[in-house]
Amino acid sequence: xxxxxxSSFPHISPLLTPLMYRxxxxxxxxxxxxxxxxxGQEQIPxxxxxxxxxTHRSRxxxxxxxxxxxxxxxxxxxxxxxxxxEMLGLQGWVIGQCGGFxxxxxxxxxxxxxxxxxxxxxxxxLVVFPEGNIFRDRQIHPLKPGLARLALQAAQxxxxxxxxxxxxxxxxxxxxxxxxxxxxxxGAPLSTGNYDVTHPKSAAQExxxxxxRALQQxxxxxxxxxxx
Length: 228
Fold this sequence. Notes:
The chain is α/β, with parallel strands linked by helices and 228 residues long. The chain has one domain (10-227): Glycerol-3-phosphate (1)-acyltransferase (3-Layer(aba) Sandwich), CATH 3.40.1130.10. It is built from 7 helices and 8 strands, in the order αββααβαβαβαβββα. α6 packs across α7.
């Protein structure tokens, strides 16, 4: 079904993207947040197809993720699968110029999935928020099955396994205010090579469960650090 669907490649502006890295990273984030702590950047794959799977806590997420994992850290530009709401307004325009494309989080279209598969087939780094929507209660919510299905479908068409990178975004406030704190914890990647892609339904369920467990472990580790 995906093979017959058309996809339009997301756009990464050669002029705007490096400018936004400097503007967002060096000015906006550093001035807005009192501290932005990052752990686990050594886990980021420097090559090959990878899905970055962050928790979703704020509209700041789409700005923080490239700053802590993108071209300045890994040498890679990131593509984004984001909700239609996040493609609205000035932020949406910027995201659209920097690799973002919309997806219906309740019922992803075939064309959106096709775009994701094509990006991974080309060895790109794709950001997918597995919870689907923004949740501000600092709890890990049930994951949508789309990420696992996308990864496994891409794995069937690639010459190498797809890596899935769990990322925890933890804000000190539900609605981050000026001078607040944020912590980003990056876990060890999962690999589609550990799942039987010839049984896609059970493999997707297993991968989704493993990703949920990985995010929960990052959350538990963050809680233990706070108690220490």
